[in-house]
Structures are given as C-alpha cells and as structure tokens.
Amino acid sequence: MEPGLVGPGPYRATRLWNEIIELFRTGMPLRKHRCRFKSYERCFKASEAVDCLHELLGSNQNFGPEVTRNQTVKLLKKFLKNHVIEDIKGRWGKEDFQDDGHLYRFPPSSPLKPYPKKPSFGKEVIKFPNWNDTKAGTSEEHIPVKSVTMNSEMWYKRHSIAIGEVPACKLVFRRELSQENIEEIWKSMTLSRLQKVLGLDSLDEVIDTKLVNSKHIVQNAYSVNKQGIVTLEDKSKDLPHWILSAMKCLANWPICSDAKQPTYSGFERDVFKTIVDYFGQMKEPLLTFNFFDIFVSVLGLLQKHSKAIEALQISCLLLPPENRRKLQLLVRMMARISFNKDLPPLSESVRTRTLMIQAFSRCILCSKDEMDLDELLATKLVSFLMDHYQEILNVPSSLKSSIEEHLVHVQRVQIKYAGADTDATFPTPSFCHQISTDEFEYQRASGSQEPLAALLEEIAMNKEISVKDKKKKLKQFQKSYPEVYKVRFPTPETEAMLFPEKSKQKPPILMWALKKPFQPFHRTRSFRM
C-alpha cells in the first residue's frame, strides 16, 4: 500500500491510526524464529519491528523524518496495548514492549478504530444590526436634493420608474456598528475563510463554533506590539517575569539582558530546564483542548505550503490572547535556540532542534483524552511552526483587509431597491452546518419552488420575446417542471389568457374586384381585304 497524505477533515487522527496499522501489517517482514528450542512461524523480533515502523513513519508524508526511534517504541507499546500486535504466546494489553529481541506476531485480525460519533454542533445564529433602520435624526422623506435640469434621458428614467419598468429605490442610512456587531462580523468571516481554506463542507465536525470567542479574535488582530506579539490588558495572565527573563536569556545568547546573571558551566542547561518545567506543568496545551481537531486537520495541508500557513494563521487567531502570546514567545525562543551556533549544546545525545520539539511539543498540542498519535502529530505541527513562525504567528493581512473593507461598506449610505432585503455587493458570510436527510429533502422541495415559480412568471410576463418563442419556452418549462407549471396554469384557460385571440379582420377589397367580371372573348367574322 502506498502511503498517502491524509487530508484535513473530521477524525483525522483516527484515519492516521488506521493507515499506520495497515502500512505496518503490510510492510513488516515475517519469518520463522527460534526461542528456547522452539520454532515460531510468521513472527518478528521487537527490534525488527522498531526498525520497520521507524522507517515507515520517517518516509510517510503525514509524519516525516522528525519522528525519533524512541517515539516509535512508544507507538509500538500502544500497538501492544490495543492488540495490534501480541507476543508469541498471545499476550497483549500492557505497554511492556521494549526495543530488544522478544518475539511478536500479528493477531488474525488487527482491530481498526471505528470513527467516533460526535454530536453535531448546532449553527450559532450571529446577530447583525438591522440595516433598514434609518440613522437617528435623519428622515428619508426629507432628503435634500439638488435641483437639476431635466433632459430627455432623465425624463425617460423617471418615467420608466413610474410605469414599473425599473424598480423604485430609496436611500438607506446605516446606523454605526456597535463593538459587538464588529466582533461578530469578525468571527463570522474568519470562520468562513477557515472553512474555505481547509476545503471542508462544514466546520461542525472539527470545531464547536460556540466556543470561539469573537472578542479574542479582535484582540489578537489589533492589540499587538511592534513585533506582532499580542499585548494583554490583564497582566496577571502573562508569563511570570522570571520565565520571560529566562526565555530572553537563551533566545539572545550570549547577549543576555541581565548582566548580573551567573555564567558558570552548565548555566544554560539549568535555565532551559527551568523553562521546560514551567511549560510542562500547564493543565492545558497552548492550542487548547477545544481546538485540537482543527489543528490536526491543518496538518493535512502541509504539502500545500501557502494554504497550510494561512490555515494556521487563522486557527491561531481563535486562541485566547494569553495563549497566543505565550505561543508566540515560546516558538520564537525555540527557533532562535535551534539556529544559534554560539549556544552550547543543551544535551549530549540529542540535537538541539530535536530537543526543542521533544521538550515542548506536548505543551503546545495534545488532546484532552490522550490519543495514540498525539506525540507524533504534535511533533509534526511544532516542527512546521518552528520553520515558519514569523508568518504563521502574524495576523493574516488578506483576511484583515477584507473584513475592514466589509465593515466600511456596511456603514455607508446605500441605494436600496424595492424588494431587495440584503446587499448584493457584500453578502454576509456564513459557515455551513450539517442537517438531517429529511430536512434536506424538505428544503430542496420547498426552497426550489420559489425561484422556479419566479422564472416561470418572468417568462410569462416577458413582452420582448415573440409569441412563438414564449410558447416554446413555456412548453420546455412544463416538460421539465410540471408541478410548478401546474400551480401557475392549473387549467388550459389560464394558459390561454397569455395569448388573447386577435379579432379577425376582413381583407381589404381589391380594386380589381370592383370591375366587371371577366368576359370571355367572342369570335367575330374577319373581314378580308
């Protein structure tokens, strides 16, 4: 089986788990082994399983070369616990797998995980201001109009409105948007853009939109310093001063901000351990439990570089401001430490970049109910964050400008035509939600009737087409939509009213008809000379 990229969408972690199991069962070589004077068919050594699975994960697009051998051993322990593998005596259920010479085998059927049934999140109704309200102190009937000289073209336009050829219109004065209106528009358009980038029909299966705080989005977009780092109004939610000093020290090594700091051998390792301990004791990861599925879905876009960056930009906008600030400072420190050649090694056995990922991946991304692939998924995401943190942790400029343009538009004085309840230029964006089959059938039956009936009425009342063409179009419509046609024309008489019979006029009397009837030629005698 060729390993493929598992794209974004619901239950991505479960889909990855099932794919790895199938790849491992297909790719793991099985042969005869001897143990304590006894032979066992179709089995493998623990160390051979580690070699095979580590190679599979490293070459798989969903995980990549960042996966370590130690992480592979942890995954095999979970395989043993979930009865993906068993020892040669058929024992399983414990995580006592070791990278050694013990023999294991596959059970007759490896259990693939079923997709969990999540309750469908109801669509949140976002309240927008009533655009039909006039601005306070302004009357629609007393709008100052500059007098103009009436020419033939203007007279025709006014006359056309009077006879109904062009719909009448009026000026609509918009009220100023409240802060709540602005925040809800930001939320709606942000989620709509995220759904489009991920290529999903609905966000319901990957995020509960009711948990998205519109105030957080606006604060993350505007309350930033010159470096783009979020600033907090409540300083008690910020990182402690001593942690900030420690992070600055390693990020700017060897130029520390505090000249009084000690410089003994191993000082940098003690500072690093202090930072790791602080972030390791957090009760919830920086990307939060609520948004775990949305970030796992983004991992399916990593091959599409620009889309993955935009999706992560938008997803990080949804975070609480204190989480976004901590994430910005932490990932920036991790990236600087990884590329700092002047900083002494922080580990004797692990490369600095790998150490950063192993130390902080769990405090950045993990699920509330510990999942089997949490560590591998977090490793992949954190690695991408470190490589592109300057772009990802900035506010997406295209989204910001489009929302700001929309906010300006909806507050302008507009021309509203009769029968138009919404603005056609900038429709209010919304995100889809899943509905039941019965509701879909009802909406399809009821929702499609109105536009079809309007189309039929337009054909019937159109005076610009000939009678022959009109009859042809009506016949085509009747053949395609007989039910709609029958509602409009229940009897042949109602249809005939569209084509009133013209009174038959007698043909004009021709001049030659007034003359005497033709007289046949009578032969007469000819006179010979």
TrEMBL record:
It comes from the Eukaryota. Keywords: GTPase activation. PROSITE patterns: RHOGAP. Residues 201-393 form the Rho-GAP domain. Transmembrane segments: none annotated. One of its GO terms (biological process) is intracellular signal transduction. GO terms for molecular function: GTPase activator activity. This is DEP domain-containing protein 1B.
